Amino acid sequence: MGATLTAGALLVCTCGVGPATADPVAAPASAGEAVQRLIDLSHQSEQLNQQALNAQSDLDAKVAAADAADAKADIAEGALNAARIEIQSYQPVIDRAASSALLGSRTNRLTAMLVSSSPQQLLDQMSIVDLVGARTNDQLGQFQKVSDAAKVAETAARSAADIARAASAQADAVRTDLEAKRASLQGSMASVIAAWGQLSASDRSALAGSAFPPGFDRDSLLRGLVPGSGTSALAAGLTRIGFPYVWGATGPEQFDCSGLVQWAFHQVGKDVPRTSQQQSTYGTPVDEKDLQPGDVVFFYSDISHVGIYAGNGLMLHASTFGVPVAVAPMASSPFHSARRF
């Protein structure tokens, strides 16, 4: 992409279009080349910054899922152990039933009739036989239910353990990816800082630009704002004008692009996601032609830059290293989409 220095305002979307190939240590041939080198490196760094933030968010979700899976596995294992203990409590009944079946039970109605000395004794013994048989059958039925429950518990425990292991493996994979992205970001940031160090004072001043474009009227813009609305979030964000851009920062005195948006809406009670990609799915979509101050605007095909619409084709954003939070034209970056929070 190109970048234009105009009357003290430079719009730089620090998002990725591929790694810069220039050697940041080699002396630039001109001031324009030095500035462009910084811009290119900053693009790469902001893209890596958003990728690292996304990976961190993904890792947090995967770790939470792994912890939840571990907890379910523990519960399932506890249920299985309880079922096994209950099965053991029925073992004496099972042993007696098995012994009786093996030897041929002598405690039956025929035996009771043969050994009874009177009709009353016969009735009493037959009642006892019926009671013992019914109780044994009931206990055997309960044992079957407990056994079935134990099988279900064993299957659940095995499944929960498998899910827990898979969740842990996914978390480990994301953690490895995050570490790689952070390492890449650190290297890219070092290149940006080296390129910055090669700029003259006048080039740095031109890069930083002014906080507001000519003719910007903050008071008119915010007149009639509704508390808790996007306009009031914009008002909160405008209090951060002049604060520095820092990769991964969320305020209150340093910001990256998505960190500024998150901070501004947090001031009006809205829990906005952390990264520009996540923010692009929050709220409701808005057509570019229908933008209102306080809407959130996204740029580039990978949605690696974000700002808050400030009316008249302008946006409030944290642009890039060396450029403080400012209001600037949004036309210099490729528009992707907009949302109303």
- H and E string: HHHHHHHHHEEEEEE
The coarse overall form would be elongated
Count of individual beta strands: 6
The helix content, as a percent range, equals 55-70%
Distance between the termini: 29 Å
Overview of this protein structure:
It contains nine helices and six strands. The chain has helices at 31-89, 91-103, 109-115, 119-197, 201-208, 218-222, 230-238, 257-266, 276-279; strands spanning 284-285, 296-299, 305-309, 314-317, 326-329, 335-340. The longest helix has 79 residues, at 119-197. It starts with 30 loop residues before the first helix and ends with a strand. It is of the alpha+beta class and 341 residues long. Residues 1-25 and 102-107 have low confidence and may be disordered. The protein folds into two domains: 64-195; 209-340, endopeptidase domain like (from Nostoc punctiforme) (endopeptidase fold (from Nostoc punctiforme)). The protein has a six-stranded antiparallel sheet. Helix 1 (31-89) packs antiparallel against helix 4 (119-197), helix 3 (109-115) packs antiparallel against helix 4 (119-197) and helix 7 crosses helix 8 (257-266).
What labels describe this entry?
341 residues, alpha+beta, endopeptidase fold (from Nostoc punctiforme), 9 helices, 6 strands, elongated
Provide the fold topology.
Layout: H1 31-89, H2 91-103, H3 109-115, H4 119-197, H5 201-208, H6 218-222, H7 230-238, H8 257-266, H9 276-279, E1 284-285, E2 296-299, E3 305-309, E4 314-317, E5 326-329, E6 335-340
Antiparallel strand pairs: 1-6, 2-3, 2-6, 3-4, 4-5
Helix pairs in contact: 1-4, 3-4, 7-8
